[in-house]
Design a protein that fits this description.
Elements (H helix, E strand, L loop, with lengths): L2 H9 L5 H16 L3 H11 L3 H8 L8 H7 L5 H9 L3 H21 L16 H12 L1
Helix pairs in contact: 1-2, 1-8, 2-6, 2-7, 2-8, 3-4, 5-7, 6-7, 7-8
Length: 139
Amino acid sequence: MGLLDLVEQAVGGSANAPHAKVAGGLLEEMQQRPSGLGGLLQSFHQNGQGGMVQQWSNGQTQPANPTDMEAGLAGTGIIEKIAQRTGLSPTVVKTGLAVTLPILIQHMTTNKHLTSSGELTGPQPEPHNVLGSILNRLV
C-alpha cells in the first residue's frame, strides 16, 4: 500500500483531505529524490526562504503563505510533481504545502532526523510513520 492509499484510508472525505493528499504526495516525492527532504530545505535556503524553515524548526507551525511555498521551491519542480501524483491543481498543492510543510519540518527537526539547514542526522524514520504524525495534526 502506497502513502497516498494510506491517506485516502485515513481521511476519506474530511475537509482536510486535500492537505493530507499533498502530505502523502510530498513524502512519496521525497522518497524518489536522492537529496530527499534535506534537499527541499536547502532549496528554501537558496531561494531566500531560510527564515521560514528556522521558524518551523523552532515550533512555529502556523500555515505559511502559498506564495512562499512557490518561492522556496522555485526550480525544483516539486509542486508540479506532487500535482501529478495527487491529481490536485498546483494551486491546491501550494496551499496544502503551506499547511503541511511547517508541521513536517517541525516534526523532523524536533525529533533530530534533520537540521534546519537540511542535513540528515542519523537514521531516518519510515515515511508511513511520518505521514501518520502529520495526519494526526491535520484531522
